[in-house]
Amino acid sequence: MGCVFLGLGAPFTVACLPPLVSSPRPWVWAYSRVLICIGFTGCTLPFFIPLLIFWLKPEVKAYYGKE
């Protein structure tokens, strides 16, 4: 079971690194939104629904230069 978690966790860790190391840009906002939506596929809906609501606020979009 540990190998399965390691095999799934490593690609997702690599996928989550670009938003952490880049400056706020519109593509980072869109990329992070895609990552949030990927989180909807599991049983983690109670965690990702509030995160998506926060992510769609105008203040967050303005920070990333989306609007």
Instruction: Give the fraction of residues assigned to helices.
Output: over 70%
Q: How many domain modules?
A: 1
Largest beta-sheet characterization: none
Estimated radius of gyration: 14 Å
Low-confidence stretches: none
Portion in beta strands? under 5%
- Average pLDDT, rounded to a whole number, is 92
The geometry reads as: flat
Kindly state the number of beta strands: 0
Query: Structural class of the secondary structure composition?
Result: mainly alpha
Distance between the termini: 44 Å
**Helix-strand pattern, N to C?**
HHHH
Number of helices: 4
Keywords: Membrane, Transmembrane, Transmembrane helix
Transmembrane segments: 31-56
Molecular structure report:
By secondary structure, the protein is mostly helical. The chain has one domain (2-63). It is 75% helix and 0% strand. It contains 4 helices and no strands. The N and C termini lie far apart (44 Å). The mean pLDDT is 92. The chain crosses the membrane at residues 31-56. Keywords: Membrane, Transmembrane, Transmembrane helix.
